[in-house]
Amino acid sequence: MYSLAIKHGQFPILKRGANSPKIKPRGKSIRLNEGLIPDFYKKIALENEIQCLCSKYESCEDFHLYKTPLTHEFFVLRIDEISHYPDSALPGRKYNAHKDQKNQSVLLLSSLEESSFFASKNSQVKTLEVLVPRKWFLGQLKTDCSYELLKRYMAVKTRRALVDCSNHLFRSLFIRIIREANKEVPDTDCIRGKVNSLLAIFFSDLSSNLMDFLETEKVRISKDEINRLLTVRKYLDTDLPPPTFASLTKIALMSSTSLKTKFKKMYGATVFEYFQSMRMQKARILLLTHKYSVKQIGRHFGYSNMNNFTIAFKKEFNQLPHLLIK
């Protein structure tokens, strides 16, 4: 495992020094501690003090990147696309990754908080980070959102930006920005226009989600209800057969409407979404043991139709289950 800790707004590049790993040439590429082969790293300044960090590199071994907190705050819209290639492919060479081997994630981060990123061995990483000043960021929201509400929302959603990664326009803009940044002399105006379009999609989705979140914030939960909801969550975490919603209302001693509303406020997901996520997390752990087939694990979790299991797994991790046991 190759680990690296850097500050928000920095690239995963270490300068030469007594405490730095060795940087070795490898053909036309550069290996960083035998762990990374950078393709390009570019920082582009835009208007309103917004900055874009674009990068593309290959990981020759498992790579864990830590972003350490800063004392001043800005928000970071981070988009990653990870493509895995087979062990037979040589790092630093061109290859055609199958479309299902690409895993894209969109995160909303604060520079006041630490974050981490993981890429497995033999993977190509494309990253776009849009660094936005706090005041400008809050001014773009289309709802009456306070700073405190936004931070609570980010905490509940585990810092997910909740932009639909399957949004064709959003993904197309990301790819075109990376391609333009990859040029020897990037067209800054072109990148600026595409970043603005990408931010427009992001803020539209975020504003809508914040309005829904504001409604759930009005819901009050007593200490006794918190304990009962905790019991429901523990029940959902077990390997028992899928519970009926009626049985959960009895455990919670609540009406169905109250359970739906208060569970979502407390855990940031519906009962079904939470239960489904837990099942897929457990399925992933079993797959990584390489002891069971996809079919065996799907049946263990109650799926008679493996296509439904595959769809649920990909929805959770944006990756097909069979790729984990290759």
Tag the structure with descriptive keywords.
Arc Repressor Mutant, subunit A; 23% strand; 10 helices; alpha+beta; 326 residues
Chain-wise SSE layout:
Blueprint: E1 2-7, E2 23-26, E3 29-32, E4 36-45, E5 51-59, E6 63-68, E7 74-84, E8 102-110, E9 115-119, E10 123-133, H1 134-139, H2 147-156, H3 168-181, H4 188-217, H5 223-237, H6 245-252, H7 256-267, H8 271-288, H9 294-300, H10 306-317
Parallel strand pairs: 1-6
Antiparallel strand pairs: 2-3, 4-5, 5-10, 6-9, 7-8, 7-10
Strand content: 15-25%
Q: How many independent structural domains?
A: 2
The best one-word shape is: globular
Question: Which percent range fits the helix content?
Answer: 40-55%
In round numbers, the mean pLDDT is 80
Description:
The chain folds into 2 domains: 2-217, no CATH class; 223-325, Orthogonal Bundle (Arc Repressor Mutant, subunit A). Helix content is 40%, strand content 23%. It has helices at residues 134-139, 147-156, 168-181, 188-217, 223-237, 245-252, 256-267, 271-288, 294-300, 306-317; strands spanning 2-7, 23-26, 29-32, 36-45, 51-59, 63-68, 74-84, 102-110, 115-119, 123-133. β2 (23-26) and β3 form a beta hairpin. The chain is globular. Mean pLDDT is 80; it is low at 14-33.
Summarize this entry quickly.
This protein has 326 residues and is of the alpha+beta class.
